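[Discussion] Sanity-checking designs against the backbone

I'm trying to build intuition for which residues belong where. Below is a C-alpha cell string of 191 positions. I'd appreciate it if someone posts a full sequence so I can compare it with mine line by line.
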C-alpha cells in the first residue's frame, strides 16, 4: 500500500503548485521551471492545509484522504498540462557526451543505493524521534498538540506534510515520498 500511495501526494503537490504558478505567472517560466518551483509550492500548500486542520482538531485519516481526493480533482488540469509539457521538461538530445554518461552513471548508482535506504525500516534517531514521531502523534491525537520532549519543537513544515504520508500509507510512504522528492530535486537541478 505504501509504495502505491506515495505517488498521490507527489502528484497532488505538482498539480497544486504548478496550477498556482500558471495562474500567478502566466509567462516567463520554462516547463522545468514550473515543475521545479511547483512541487515545493504544492508541498507548502498541503502543509498549510494540514496545519489548519490540526489547529481545528480535525486531523484524521479520513479527512486527509478527503483532502487528497479533492486536491486531485482540483489538480487534474495542471497535471494534464504537465503530461503535455513532458517534451519541454525532458527534451531529447541528439548525442550524449562522455561527461554526461559519467554523471548519469554516478547519479543512477547513488539513486539505487538511496533506494535501498528508502525501502528499509527506519532506524535513524532523527526520523524516529521527530520526523516521523511528531507527525504520528499529531495524527493519533487528531490535532496539533504539545509534544512533551525537546525534539518535538524541531518539527516544521515538512513534518506537517509527512502527516499526509503517514495517514495514507505509514512510514514507508513517507520514506518513498522523500526518495521521490530527492529524485525530483536532482532532475530539476540538471534540467
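Best answer:
Here's mine. Compare freely.
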Amino acid at each position: 500500500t505504501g509504495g502505491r500511495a506515495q505517488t498521490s501526494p507527489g502528484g497532488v503537490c505538482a498539480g497544486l503548485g504548478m496550477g498556482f504558478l500558471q495562474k500567478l505567472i502566466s509567462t516567463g517560466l520554462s516547463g522545468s521551471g514550473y515543475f521545479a518551483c511547483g512541487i515545493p509550492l504544492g508541498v507548502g500548500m498541503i502543509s498549510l492545509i494540514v496545519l489548519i486542520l490540526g489547529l481545528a482538531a480535525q486531523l484524521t485519516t479520513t479527512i486527509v484522504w478527503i483532502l487528497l481526493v479533492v486536491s486531485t480533482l482540483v489538480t487534474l488540469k495542471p497535471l494534464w498540462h504537465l503530461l503535455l509539457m513532458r517534451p519541454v521538461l525532458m527534451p531529447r538530445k541528439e548525442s550524449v557526451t562522455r561527461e554526461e554518461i559519467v554523471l548519469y552513471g554516478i547519479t543512477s548508482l547513488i539513486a539505487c543505493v538511496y533506494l535501498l535506504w528508502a525501502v528499509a525500516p527506519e532506524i535513524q534517531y532523527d526520523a524516529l524521534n521527530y520526523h516521523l514521531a511528531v507527525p504520528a502523534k499529531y495524527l493519533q491525537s487528531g490535532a496539533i498538540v504539545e509534544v512533551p520532549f525537546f525534539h518535538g519543537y524541531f518539527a516544521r513544515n515538512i513534518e506537517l506534510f509527512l502527516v499526509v504520508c503517514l495517514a495514507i500509507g505509514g512510514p514507508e510512504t513517507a520514506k518513498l515520498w522523500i526518495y521521490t522528492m530527492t529524485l525530483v530535486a536532482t532532475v530539476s537541478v540538471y534540467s
